C-alpha cells in the first residue's frame, strides 16, 4: 500500500515540496522533534551501554556515535512519511 503510493506519486509527475503541501510539518519542526527525541534516546543508550560495559567513557562513545547516526536517519524518516498520504 505504501509502496503503491510512493510509486504512483512519482509516476504521475507529482513532485511535492513542503510549500505545495501545507498539511505536513515544516522542516524546522521535524528538526526540533529530531533533536529532542535523540536527546532522550541518547541518554537511554548511554545508560544501557554503561550498565552493559561498566565503562562510562565507552558508554559516552557509543552514545555520541548513536546520536549522530540516528538523528540523520530520523529526519529523513519523518520527511519521507510526510510524503505518504496514508492515514492523513
Write structural notes for this entry.
The protein is elongated. The longest helix is centred in the middle third of the chain and has 27 residues, at 27-53. The model has no long low-confidence stretch (mean pLDDT 81). Helix 2 packs antiparallel against helix 3. The protein contains 3 helices and no strands. The two termini are 14 Å apart. With 88 residues, it is mainly α. 6% of the residues are buried.
Using brief descriptors, characterize the structure shown.
88 residues, 3 helices, mainly alpha
Layout of helices and strands, plus pairs?
Elements: H1 2-11, H2 27-53, H3 56-82
Helix pairs in contact: 2-3
Short description:
This protein has 88 residues and is mostly helical. 73% of the residues lie in helices and 0% in strands. The chain is elongated, with a radius of gyration of 18 Å.
**Bulk shape:** elongated
Biggest sheet record: none
- Which residues sit in consecutive blocks of at least 5 with pLDDT less than 50? none
Summing up helix and strand content along with how strands pair, one would put the structural category as: mainly alpha
How far is it from the N-terminal to the C-terminal residue, by CA?
14 Å
Number of strands: 0
Average pLDDT over all residues: 81
Instruction: List the helices and strands in order.
Output: HHH
* Individual helix count: 3
Fraction in helix: over 70%
Radius of gyration: 18 Å
| Percent in strands | under 5%
What oligomeric assembly is this protein in?
A: single chain
Amino acid at each position: 500500500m505504501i509502496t503503491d503510493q510512493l510509486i504512483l506519486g512519482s509516476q504521475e509527475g507529482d513532485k511535492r515540496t513542503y510549500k505545495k503541501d501545507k498539511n505536513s510539518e515544516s522542516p524546522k519542526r521535524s528538526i526540533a522533534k529530531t533533536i529532542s527525541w535523540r536527546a532522550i534516546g541518547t541518554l537511554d543508550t548511554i545508560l544501557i551501554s554503561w550498565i552493559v560495559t561498566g565503562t562510562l567513557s565507552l558508554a559516552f562513545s557509543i552514545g555520541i556515535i548513536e546520536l549522530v547516526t540516528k538523528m540523520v536517519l530520523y529526519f529523513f524518516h519523518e520527511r519521507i512519511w510526510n510524503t505518504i498520504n496514508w492515514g492523513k
